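Annotated sample (chain length 220).
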Amino acid sequence: MKAIYLLAAVCAAIASLYVTPAAAVTFDYSNMSGKSIIIDPTDNCGGSGTVGCFSFSPGDSLQITSGTATGFLGGISGTFGVGTITSIGSLETANVSGTGTLSISDGFFTLTADLMWVDIATFGTAGSLNTMGTANLGNIAYGGSNGDLLALLNAGSGVNTATFQFTSPMSLTDLFTTNSTTTSTSFSGSITAVPVPAAVWLFGSGLLGLTGAARKKKAA
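Output written by the structure step:
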């Protein structure tokens, strides 16, 4: 009988891994006219090991361009440090340090979230932030009723990625070690709500079942 309890607990834990998580919601954004990413090779953000910093134009610098939040304005505050640059052919990457805040207003309520960019990369004329699509939004707060913003709130975490482009190719080395002046460029990106998969909670239940079975076996 004990073996049956143990087997059932193991099956519950394994089966939970195949539960389909809630569908993620993604909405796009682009920079507002005159707003940009500001790349500054002269500032190490007050920390060692950085080749420079980047930030976004203050105030409302982006506009949502898809989904139920289309037309909403927002911005990204904070200054982010760029670490040691790694080159693989035309691809250059670097880790990013620092925490900022993403804000999106529905006209009455403002969603806010802590934001970490994770990494930065350039390839040819294009650059990107958070290239691996790592979850980098947390501590999300929102008191309104917009569907996409609520999805982000209810997910509890999200992925913010962005791209930027120059007319002439500019690598991270060009931007942060060759140049000695501040450079600005337009940007666009997407925000994806990433719900905690139901499998995580069910797997926890399976583990509890395993623990209970093990205790019963020990007591016997």
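Annotation: The first strand starts at residue 26 and ends at 31.
Annotation: The mean pLDDT is 83.
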